[in-house]
Design goal:
Blueprint (H helix, E strand, L loop, with lengths): L2 E8 L1 H5 L3 H10 L3 E8 L3 H7 L9 H8 L4 E9 L1 H9 L12 H5 L8 E3 L3 H11 L8
């Protein structure tokens, strides 16, 4: 298996509901390594860069408004096939379709406020990690 790094964000509702420890524990118990972690408030500029592939779509404004509505926790996660495995752990984007046992299946109720974000490809992971972390903030 190829070792990859991916971005995991615990969104404002996940932070507000006290799910940081639960999400982090699930990631670590699965065998992944945290290579960076921090709490921050996402600026509108950063949110627009993060969601740039959705510019022009009807839900773009809602994405930006939500991710900037409160603090988030950003994690750089590393391990075998991290992008796919972490996405599988999160469950379907729409929590109504997320299987029980997944993060969204267990903790999310609405597609627009689905508790966590995970990069959807290695390319996206590299781009997104660069938005949230400098090279000096990541450890091996």
């Amino acid at each position: 298996m190829v070792v990859e790094r991916t971005l995991v964000l615990i969104k404002p509702n996940g932070v507000a509901r006290g799910l940081v420890g639960e999400v982090t524990a699930r990631v670590e118990r699965r065998g992944f390594h945290l290579r960076g972690m921090k709490m921050l408030r996402v600026s509108r500029e950063l949110a627009e860069k993060h969601y740039e592939e959705h510019i022009g779509k009807p839900f773009f404004g809602e994405l930006v408004d939500f991710i900037t509505s409160g603090p988030i926790v950003a994690m750089a996660v590393e391990g075998p096939s991290a992008v796919k495995v972490v996405r599988d752990m999160m469950g379907a984007t729409d929590p109504r379709e997320a299987a029980p046992g997944t993060i969204r299946g267990d903790y999310a109720l609405e597609i627009g406020e689905n508790v966590v974000h995970g990069s959807d490809s290695v390319e996206s992971a590299n781009r997104e990690l660069g938005l949230y972390f400098t090279a000096g903030e990541l450890v091996d």
